[in-house]
Design brief:
The chain has about 250 residues and is α+β, with helices and mostly antiparallel strands. The chain has a single domain, classed as Creatinase/methionine aminopeptidase superfamily (Creatine Amidinohydrolase). The protein has four helices and 15 strands. It has a five-stranded antiparallel beta sheet. Strands 1, 2, 4 and 5 form a four-stranded antiparallel beta sheet that branches. A three-stranded antiparallel beta sheet has the order 3-12-11, with no helix packed on it. α1 packs antiparallel against α2 and α3 (about 120-135) runs antiparallel to α4. The structure holds magnesium ion (MG). The site of magnesium ion has 5 residues, from loops.
């Protein structure tokens, strides 16, 4: 597979996109509270992205109507923002993407409205730590399988189930490029991580079974047993000196 290797200049443009995404997620953390609607969050996010001089990657992507995805409780990813009102005691995953001068940044975080029960805290912490372990494994000379294995090990350690049908991806001039980044070992090395390779790593974990289905809206992915789910994502670049997170302030 021909994998794009991004130049330092291209990576800098992705970092600009990524900074907008990081800022949006920080803003969402501030704005997320019981009583706000997912549509209001989307409007705030979209306004921020446009004011920053970027464009929302998600809006219009295969017809997606929002600038962010908001996925609540048993919703894993791709929740469509709208009239739904955020309540106390919910697991809320927000995914955002921005384009800066043709280059993409894509990231997600899971929040909780209130103080999470211990098992929910474990779900959220495990998913975040799985992402960080995956990033740490993305050193030059390693392979996608090392990233996948690092994510898988943390998920198992945290007693969470891995959502398998959705995986991380190459990213650059498109939000989703050919490289796939599974959150579990597939038994093959996969793509060599050389300097310039840019990927989005995005573990999606569930407290119960991670068996999932897509709702009739064509987008929202939910756990079939209604297990709570979490989702963390960063866009990273593999560089000579190691992995660099691009979706950070
Ligand atoms: Mg992604």
């Amino acid at each position: 597979m021909a994998v794009p290797h991004r130049t330092p200049r291209e990576i800098e443009l992705m970092r600009r996109a990524g900074r907008v995404v990081a800022d949006v997620l920080a803003l969402m953390e501030e704005e997320l509270r019981p009583g706000v609607t997912t549509g209001q969050l989307d409007a705030i996010a979209e306004a921020y992205i446009l004011k920053a001089g970027a464009r929302p990657s998600f809006k219009g992507y295969r017809g997606f109507p929002g600038s962010i995805c908001v996925s609540i409780n048993e919703e894993v990813v791709h929740g469509i923002p709208g009239k739904r009102v955020i309540e106390e005691g919910q697991v809320v995953s927000i995914d955002a993407g921005a384009i800066w001068q043709g280059y993409h940044g894509d990231a997600a975080r899971t929040f909780y409205t209130g103080t999470p029960p211990a098992d929910v805290a474990r779900l959220i912490d495990t998913t975040r730590l799985a992402l960080m372990a995956g990033i740490a494994a993305a050193v030059p000379g390693s392979y996608i399988e090392h990233v996948s294995g690092a994510v898988e090990d943390v998920a198992i350690e945290g007693r969470c189930d891995i959502v398998r049908p959705f995986v991380g991806h190459g990213i650059g001039t498109e939000m989703h490029e050919d490289v796939q980044v599974p959150n579990y070992r597939i038994g093959r090395h996969g793509v060599l991580l050389e300097p310039g390779v840019c990927i989005a790593i995005e573990p999606m974990l569930a407290l119960g079974s991670a068996d999932v289905k897509t709702l009739a809206d064509g987008w929202t992915v939910v756990t079939t047993d209604h297990s709570l789910a979490a989702h963390f994502e960063h866009t990273i670049a593999v560089t000579e000196s190691g992995p660099v997170i691009l979706t950070t302030a």
